[in-house]
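Follow-up to my post from last week.
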Amino acid sequence: MPPPTPAHDDVVHSEPFLRSLMRRQLALSISCASTFMVALLGLPLANYFAPELMATRVGGFTLSWLVVGVLFFPFVWIISYVFIRRSIALENDEVAQVQNGKERR
Amino acid sequence: MAAFPLFAATFGGVDLWIFTFSFITVAVTIGMGFWSARKSKTASDFFVAGRSVSVGWNASAISGEYLSAASFMGVAGMVMSSGYDALWYPVCYACGYLFLLLFIAGPLRRFGAYTIPDFAEGRFDSPLFRKIAVIFVLFIGFFYTMPQMKGAGVTLAYIFPGIPYWAGVVLVGAVITFNVALGGMKGITLVQAFQYWAKMFAISVPIFVVMAVFGFYNQHVGANQAPGEPPVAIGASASGVDGSSAAKVQRQPLTEKAPPDAAWIAPFGPLTTKAVNAAAAVLPPEQRAAYLEEHQRPYSLLYTYSLIIALVCGTAGLPHILVRFYTNPDGVAAKRTTMWVMILIGIFYVFPPVFGVIGRNLMPELYAGVGAKGTDKIVLELPTLLSVKSTLLGSVLSGITCAGAFAAFMSTFSGLLVSMTGALAHDVYGRMLRPNSKPQERLVAFKFAAVLVGGIAIGLGCFVEPLEINFMVGQAFAIAAASYFPLLFMSVWWRGMTMKGAAIGMLTGGLCALVAAALTNFSTLALDKGPMGKVFAGFAPLNSFWAQHPLLRILCEQPAIWTVPLAITLMIVVSKATARNVPADVRMKMLVLHAPEKLGLKQEYIQEHQAGAGH
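User reply:
Got it. Predicted complex:
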């Protein structure tokens, strides 16, 4: 009968694997989050320091209204599309890494 | 027909089209709930059944659960009353979902924790922490039910002009509560998906007809004069400010209580400058201008940032949202679903502000109304303007938006009631009070808990008529942002977290936000001219305190900017101090949270845990 707990000395359970796993995932999340944080937190600053520019009329809207009320949504879609594609690729790469490690042993 | 005069007295002034559409929505929702509840009996059925659902249905269901009365009615009402600043709400409701996707959804899905209490227990191996988390679910839940109840009261008072606000709250609250207690609403995918499309149809079709007749979104925004622009003739035909737009928008003159164009259309308007304006009003007249010049814009910027933090971080902590990430067959499908959810809710959130903008230009009389007769009902009322073209068209379209409002507060209130009742019956009764109770006793406890939670929610709902729907939802988000968001974020990404650190940070942050939000609401209610003003009269002195200290008022009204960092700091400090209590198998937990599902670590983890428990 096999032991209930598998051996813990393979690639998956190694400390370097976990570290690289978490670092790569966090790096991806933070790079996507910072793109959107720069835009989201930058908008109030633009309103604060460049009120005339943000009040420019674009087809009836003020620039600021157009960006926050309409254009921000497609922007968020682009970020989530990029994140989802990259994170699926990242997961596949991690799985491949583990399988390669098993084959080498 | 002897009964007819009685019928006419009760339903006098009721538009039959509006009534019919609303009634059909309620009946279909309840009917579908019971139909699908019969098909799937247990909670695990719900998850398993959900796993066979396609990406499109599942994305609709998540969106249906997410869009509450605040999204459907509150955003429009607040854009109408406060202008530009209120646009942060729809944007951040959508962005909050992105934040959830980036940092929390994937790991929690891999960990297999369906709710925050499940996660709290699993991550720290602590049943005690589970209990703390459960009690907090109830706090946030009640805060979030209040605006839904206000939505119900406003809608009923609109459909039946004769009945008072509280009667609408009691009626709708009682119907939904008994529906949940009888097992008719279990958060079934089909019902929630139907609710999304009902809401989407109800918000988009009427507004396109309104825009086709009265002028488009951009023309209506353009009719408002920004600071430094030449005046637009009010009441006369006003073209776009650049003068090139050929189409004209016919505006009604603004009423007394409406904010002026320049404050309404520009950032840092009435919503974010209220505290400073109140402080200036008690100063001697000659100091006012200098005071406003110095404080208005900086404080307003602070308010805006605090609001953004609350909304973006708070989405992660709403008790009924996370659970939906598990109703997908695998991780890739879950991610595709999330993409579609972002698109579905993003498209939806473009529309409510349009109601607010057109409402400002065409129905300014709503500014004078308070409570249920105020701007929060603009979504319901605006389509009736079409009666000038055809009485039938106005009634039918107004009926459609009323039906959408019913879909909005019914879906969210039911979802909240189910998760709160589950917490109360399963955790508080089944685990804390009577651990040895039989299944039948637990079923009775579930029904009793549903009635209890529903009753408290109705009671609270009756108090909040003077508060704006959207504002209250923002506060619920602020409390979630200061408690659950730090808990989830830190536990997923930092392995040094201990149970004590997590609990102390979550409780301190959450309770600070809760007290701050409650104080703000009490002082606002004390200003009400109706019965609520008398109930909360004891808090009236607080308003003179706010007038002396506008900065404190802003930090209480929008507490996220200090409570979120406070919670995270406490978590780090206390966890460092209690570092020897870090769970022993934290590396395995982290591996389960982060390693791709294809590696099958979850099964291994469960086996190990069971083997460990057997020793």
